[in-house]
Amino acid sequence: MLLRFSLLVCMCSVFSSVAVSQTLKDGKVWLNEDGSNYFKFTLLSQVWIRNTDMNPGSTIGGYAKNNYTDIGIRRARLQAFGQITDRVFLYTQIGMNNFNFQSDRKAGFFIHDVLGEYELVRKKLSLGAGLTAWNGLTRYAAPAAGSIMGLDAPLFEQTTNDVNDQFLRKLSVYAKGKLCKLDYRLVMSSPMAVQKSNNYSPVLGTNSTFSAMPAKMMWQGYLMWQFLDEEANTTPYATGTYLGAKRVFNIGAGFQYQPDAMWHRGTAGDTVTTNMRHFAVDVYYDAPVNRATGSAISAYATYINFDHGPGYIRNQATMNPANGTIQSAILNGSGNGYPSYGTGNLLYGQVGYKFKNNLIGKTTLMPYASLQYAHYDRLAKDMQYWDAGVNWLLKGHTSKLTLSYHNRPVYETQAGNAKAALISHKGGVTLQYQVFLN
Fold first, then answer.
1. Distance CA 333, CA 314 (A)
2. Which of 3, 184, 239, 349 is most buried (most C-beta within 10 Å)?
3. Beta bridge partners of 265
4. Residue 52: which of 383, 396, 387, 428 has the closest Cα?
5. pLDDT for the residue numbered 12
6. pTM score, two decimals?
């Protein structure tokens, strides 16, 4: 803890001394006269208060709970980055995620990103390396948390989140750039040991899981054609919505591939390894409807083919309020979990509409809705998770309240059936307050 404090004091001292001797403009410390060399800090806080209908059999500290209300910090982030010379870019991010009453106390911030990048060919080709969110597959494989349109990003697009990476960030080398209207990235990643992931089990079953054998390199990429306004690719994080500040229409396609990433027990009791292969296409549109009044629309859709091997399923349980269950047959697990990841095909869409500026005093509203629809091999009936709500934009993304309701399916494994059966649905209401210094 003392070391972290000392580093923070050191960073602040350096920032203060640089700020005195250089120009501070547009939130950046200019390192040369025209501002093309700069350094910048950003801060983000997202706090949730929510009421959740719990999955059947959920317990908190050994006590059965059907419904629970809690408060938590969904995200807290500090970014420090800049174009420190004409060709050299440095990016770092530290932060904390999912801190609630169940969390270890005094856990502190951890490193999200540390990378260095060199621009080999102006705007066309940059090479970088480090712990980074430059990933493949889809637009929101690395979402910009501060500009998410709804309550949260489509986290299933982060296919290996905290299994063989660090909260979606991977130890990687990458190439990225722009060729005319084509924005591209190609990445080679070194997967982290799955034995260090939460809920890791060495038990080998008939359903596929991540292999514990020494991992082979993961290859991934994403190509995006930008028909209208071009988006920045300074960092890997894709904007959720520009709130009408840009006119963007993109079509993208991507992949992820890792040889022998998965394993399961074969019919003869032997160990069978399979490759992890994912392919996706997506489309993004974000534009003003009426520039004079400030109204705008934002929409996104994707199709993903996931191949984690036969019968693979993994639950998503964001900042889970529960820590146990007395009904092991519930596939969702405890609390707010649901089978978000799996082998099969997925469709996802989200849409939102920003009303005119100054709708309520100097503030305005942006309602939205999203749907995740998946046909996973392990489920007897297709999975549907939907979320709808409204953003109260007190000052754009800088200060906003988001009220959201979600509805998730509950599945149960049943004797004699290879596929889990849909038995009910559960919901929850969340209020988020975001402050974003950008």
1. 10
2. 239
3. 271
4. 428
5. 52
6. 0.93
Q: Of all residues in the chain, what percent carry a pLDDT higher than 70?
A: 95
Looking up tokens 């469709």 gives 347
Instruction: Return left, alpha or beta for 24; rule: phi > 0 is left, psi -120 to 50 is alpha, else beta.
Output: beta
Contact status, residue 219 vs residue 125, Cβ threshold 8 Å: no
Q: Using CA atoms, how far apart are residues 419 and 101, in angstroms rounded to an integer?
A: 34
Q: Cβ neighbours of residue 81 under 8 Å, at least 6 residues apart?
A: 39, 40, 89, 90, 91, 92, 93, 235
Euclidean distance between CA atoms 349 and 114, whole angstroms: 31
DSSP 186-252: EEEEEPPPGGGSTT------SS-EE--SPPPPEEEEEEEEE-SSPPP-SSSPBPS--TTSS-EEEEE
> Using CA atoms, how far apart are residues 21 and 42, in angstroms rounded to an integer?
20
Q: Is 155 helix (H, G, I), strand (E, B) or coil?
A: helix
pLDDT, tens digit (0-9, with 9 covering 90-100), for 367-387: 999 999 999 999 999 999 999
Cβ neighbourhood burial of 189 (10 Å; 0-12, 13-18, 19+): buried
Write the DSSP string, 13-69. Answer: HHHHHHHHHSEEETTEEESSTTSSSEEEEEEEEEEEEEEEEPPTTEEETTEE-SEEE
Note the maximum CA span of the chain: 73
Which position has the token pair 């100054």? 358
